[in-house]
Amino acid sequence: MVESGRIDHAHHDTNAKRAMEETVEFQKAVAAAMEELGDEQGETLVVVTADHSHAVTINGYPPRGNPILGHVYSEPYTYSHYPDGTKQAYATISYANGPGYFKHFKNDSSVPWMDMRGQDYNDVDFLQPAMVPTGPEDPSETHGGEDVPIYAIGPQAYLLSGVHEQSYIAHVMAYAACVGDYSEDCPRHMDVQCSSAARVGCSIVSLVSSLLLLLWNKFL
User: Fold this and answer.
1) What pLDDT, in 10s, does the model give residues 17-58?
2) Residues paired with residue 144 on neighbouring β-strands, in sequence order
3) By CB neighbour count within 10 A (0-12 exposed, 13-18 middle, 19+ buried), where does 217 fall?
4) DSSP characters for 52-105?
5) Are the C-beta atoms of 49 and 7 separated by less than 8 Å?
6) What is the pTM of this model?
7) Which of 10, 23, 125, 141 is found 20 to 30 A from 43 (Cα to Cα)?
8) How many alpha carbons fall within 13 Å on the CB side of residue 118?
9) What does each C-alpha distance from 95 to 11, 37, 81, 114, 187 come to in angstroms?
10) Is 129 within 8 Å of 104 (Cβ atoms)?
11) How far is 112 from 101, CA to CA, in rounded Å?
12) What is the torsional sign of CA 76, 82, 85, 87?
């Protein structure tokens, strides 16, 4: 089991650059795991998911080719003006709350936010702007409430399509591995008892059992 926890740490700091870099490293970890499995890939269930989202958003209307960590600024647009008519650039990535608030907010000016156009957003320590401050005891950004994706490949991976409660994932993993409550009631256990001539029938029984498991966790 691998957790890329530094993605979480970076988002809590409203540091989008590090979050993205850690995501690339997580991708490398998944690739290394798949390579390690080798010929056993078809016999091993691999699940990639997250336990929560973050209060981060990608704002619209950056021009084509605009750096994802950069800003949006266009003279004809009217939605990026302050009430006094002052023109303002906004970050392509921003957060709903977190320490980035203190890096960009100015309370001594009629223009409350620092100008994004003059900042080095390629700096690895750059913090994206946040709308609401957090702290002072715990200034970190909060988790979000959106559903997160589940990616799966291998035995019983089809059971992880659609929308599920988090606890359901553990049941699928146990079911695919024939452990715990599913040690005597799983596709692999039934396949062992089947001859090669009856394998098709066993596969149908396996599918029905999997659907029953799905219904059990959904409705009960």
Assistant:
1) 999 999 999 999 999 999 999 988 888 999 999 999 999 999
2) 53
3) middle
4) -EESEEE-S-PPTT--TTSEE--TT-STTB-TT--B--EESEEEEESTHHHHHB
5) no
6) 0.81
7) 23
8) 5
9) 9, 38, 20, 15, 45
10) yes
11) 11
12) negative
- pLDDT per residue over 54-96, tens digit each? 999 999 999 899 999 999 998 888 778 888 888 889 999 999 9
Provide the token pair at 126. 């750059």
Q: For residue 72, give both structure tokens.
A: 């949006």
Domain boundaries, the chain: 1-40+53-146, 155-220
DSSP label at 140?
P
- β-bridge partners, 105: 113
Tell me the pLDDT tens digit for each residue of 114-159. 889 989 999 999 999 999 999 888 899 999 999 999 999 999 999 9
Sign (positive or negative) of CA dihedral 141, 142, 146, 147: positive
Can you read off the two tokens belonging to residue 175?
Answer: 């079911």
**What 3-state class would DSSP assign to 113?**
strand
**Nearest-angstrom CA–CA distance, 191 and 210:** 13
What does the pLDDT read at residue 162? 93
Measured distance CA(96)–CA(136) in Å, rounded? 16
> Which amino acid is located at 13 in the chain?
D
CA–CA distance from 30 to each of 9, 16, 36, 37, 156 (Å)?
19, 21, 10, 11, 19
